[in-house]
User: What shape does this take?
Amino acid sequence: MEDGVYVGNAGKDAALDRGWLLGHFKEHGDPRHSDALEVKWGVHPRGEQRAQWVQGEVRTALLVLVTGRFRMEFPDRSVLLEEQGDYVVWGRGVDHSWVAEEESVVLTVRWPSVPGYAVPHDEVRTDS
Assistant: This one.
C-alpha cells in the first residue's frame, strides 16, 4: 500500500471488518479510509436480521442485491430485493432495518461516512 493502491478480495476482506471495505473506520493512510463514503460487502445467512432499527439516519444509502433474497424494512413500507441487481436507495432521516430471507450477498454504499450506527457484534440475529 505504499503506493496508495490497495488490491483485495471483497469476500476475504469483508470477513475482517464485519463486511466493511471502505470508510472512516479504516486507519488514516490506508487508501480505504474515507470520511466521504462507506462500502460494505455484506454476506448474510438465511434468517439473519438487524437487531435494532437504524433511527435518526444522517446518511444516504444505496443497497444492491448481488445474490439471494433480501428485505429492507422502512417505517411505511417493505422492499423485497430478489433479482440480481435489484436495489434500493434511501436518504437522510429514513429509519430502516433488514432481514436476509435467503442466504444473500449485498453491496451497500453509504455517504457520508460517520460513526455511531454500528450494532454491537453480538446483536445481529440469525433466526434460521
User: Anything to note?
Assistant: The two ends are 40 Å apart (CA to CA). The mean pLDDT is 89. Strands lie at 20-22, 38-44, 48-49, 60-67, 70-74, 77-81, 87-90, 97-100, 104-111, 125-126. The helical segments are 10-14.
